[in-house]
Amino acid sequence: MELRNLLKDEVLYLVDKVLKDMDDICKCEKCKLDIAAIALNNLKPKYVVTEKGYVFSKADSLKPQFSTDIITEITKAIEVVRDNPRHK
To answer: N or C terminus: which one in the chain shows less Cβ crowding within 10 Å?
Structure first.
């Protein structure tokens, strides 16, 4: 097992899910990664090293508030990227 921030996988998954329902935002890989990076920088990381830590943290991710917090930060990040895309 390696050092992992469990939020990274969850944020990347939810960025795709949230963007799927939006028409007024670029969905290129660069913009999606910018959105994920901004959201991750505003969320408390969830690092794990052991398999046991992974299981406990994954159980936490099933709580509704966990997804709500992530989606809130993704939504804020989408606004930032929409207003300031790094490409034309």
So the answer is: C
